[in-house]
Amino acid sequence: MTSSQHPTTAEELRGAGLRVTAARVALLETVRRGDHLGVDALAAGVRDRVGHISVQAVYDALHALTAAGLIRRIEPAGSPARFEGRVGDNHHHVVCRSCGAVADVDCEVGEAPCLTASDDHGFSIDEAEVIYWGQCPDCSTTRS
Ligand SMILES: [Zn+2]
Ligand SMILES: [Zn+2]
Ligand SMILES: [Zn+2]
């Protein structure tokens, strides 16, 4: 997965000004390998690699990685936060109302903000958060 011209995960953490710990390296790699995982699944993935880590430590590390821009947090209304490694583009998400499955949706515009506010109230707007809601293929077939 990693080739020699790409920085290692530890180098990326250092480059983002973060202290490098085994748990942070494992967490960043688990987020990137996963598909919009929640905190519990991430904690389990990190424990598989580095042994015991408290949920609070996972939260703290997720916060640091998010603040550094290495991962992105998405928080659909009414469902727990998920994390992904796809950062640096303005993509959106589609969320299943029944099971909470999340998938990436490329932005038609490509850059934020991709919707124009009819009235910006004098704010300098830098993002329009778009979440598409519906039923995933599995849930729509079980219901029909
Ligand atoms: Zn579903
Ligand atoms: Zn995504
Ligand atoms: Zn968009």
Task: Describe the protein's architecture and organization.
One of its GO terms (cellular component) is cytoplasm. Pfam families: FUR. This is Transcriptional repressor. Helix 2 packs across helix 3 (about 40-50). This protein is of the alpha+beta class and about 140 residues long. The protein folds into two domains: about 10-75, Arc Repressor Mutant, subunit A (Orthogonal Bundle); about 90-144, Ferric-uptake regulator, C-terminal dimerisarion domain (Dna Ligase, domain 1). The strands form two sheets. A three-stranded antiparallel sheet has the order 1-3-2. The chain is globular. The protein is about 35% helix and about 15% strand.
Strand order of the largest sheet: 1-3-2
The biggest sheet, with number of strands, parallel, antiparallel or mixed sense and barrel status, is: 3 strands, antiparallel
List SSEs in N-to-C order. HHEHHEEEEEH
Question: What is the CATH architecture annotation of the largest domain?
Answer: Orthogonal Bundle
Q: Got a strand count?
A: 6
